[in-house]
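Table 4 source record.
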Amino acid sequence: MSTMAVLVVTHRTQGNRATDFLFADVGELVGITSSRGPDRGRPDRDCGGRRSFTGLESRYCTTTAQVVAQQLTMRQSFPIGTVVERRGDCIRERQP
């Protein structure tokens, strides 16, 4: 298993900014949310897209993430080089 630095949801420092929110599950891996829409150029507006992370499992957002070392595993294992696709909650090999 490999260990990697990743971003996870945290409650630490929540509330330091008036625009903070936490809807995702603490400890969940996050991705960076799209920055399109009405917040473009102004991260503290109502939308939140320019200041939030999205939980990879819950798909809910948070404004705080923490860098942690985590062992990465996949529920399904694919050989290196495999092209995969997402179909709802399922990740599978994409056929040509």
